[in-house]
Design goal:
Elements (H helix, E strand, L loop, with lengths): L17 H30 L13 H10 L11 H23 L17 H17 L8 H17 L34
Helix pairs in contact: 1-3, 3-4, 4-5
Length: about 200
């Protein structure tokens, strides 16, 4: 057999234009965020209790009603506790850190604060979770072509205005990366609100 190693040309170098690399990196980041989101949804579905069997004439209705009352009554993070809260907060953190902040984060300043420890601010957790729930609903194919636009207009813009306001939940957190400071602002005590018994 003849030696073909000298006659076989070397493979051509393939170069992707720099502009396409940015698009590719962006697409990859979005795909990774979606995969993480699907994993979160699957984890959530796997951790939810099995639905109660369909009631027949011979099934005791009182027992079925009590089992239904024990299940979660809301998907909102503030209604969750214990392990369910931790799982939901971890999923929310992935969405905030890998999708929301890279795309909508913008520069941090005293007029537009942000706290890296946002998960310790209850108002921020509540607002970001509500934003995430709306994102899940309005970016689904069933939401139609205008779903993402509605999410931007009705949910994202309002949430960012409130969270990043100079007097918002991050107002006491230092914005300088060289001098980080985190502080959760105190809320009014019940007796100050006239709610004391």
């Amino acid at each position: 057999m003849p030696d073909t190693s000298k006659t076989t040309p070397a493979p051509e170098t393939f170069r992707v234009p720099d502009g396409d690399l940015d698009d590719l990196a962006s697409t990859l980041a979005k795909t990774m965020a979606e995969v993480r989101q699907h994993g979160v949804v699957l984890d959530r579905l796997g951790s939810e209790p099995a639905s109660a069997p369909q009631r027949g004439d011979d099934a005791p209705t009182a027992q079925a009603d009590s089992e239904q009352a024990e299940g979660p009554t809301s998907v909102f993070i503030l209604a969750l506790g214990g392990e369910a809260y931790s799982v939901e907060l971890a999923a929310l953190s992935d969405w905030v850190n890998y999708l929301l902040l890279p795309i909508y984060g913008r520069e941090i300043s005293t007029t537009r604060p942000w706290c890296a420890q946002w998960h310790e601010h209850p108002e921020a957790v509540a607002r970001l979770h509500a934003l995430w729930l709306a994102w899940q609903q309005l970016t689904d194919a069933e939401a139609g072509l205008s779903g993402p636009s509605v999410w931007h207009r009705d949910h994202l813009d309002q949430t960012l205005v409130h969270l990043r306001a100079p007097d918002g939940p991050f107002a006491a957190c230092t914005t300088s990366p060289t001098r980080p400071n985190h502080r959760v602002l105190a809320t009014p005590a019940p007796e100050q609100l006239g709610l004391a018994a």
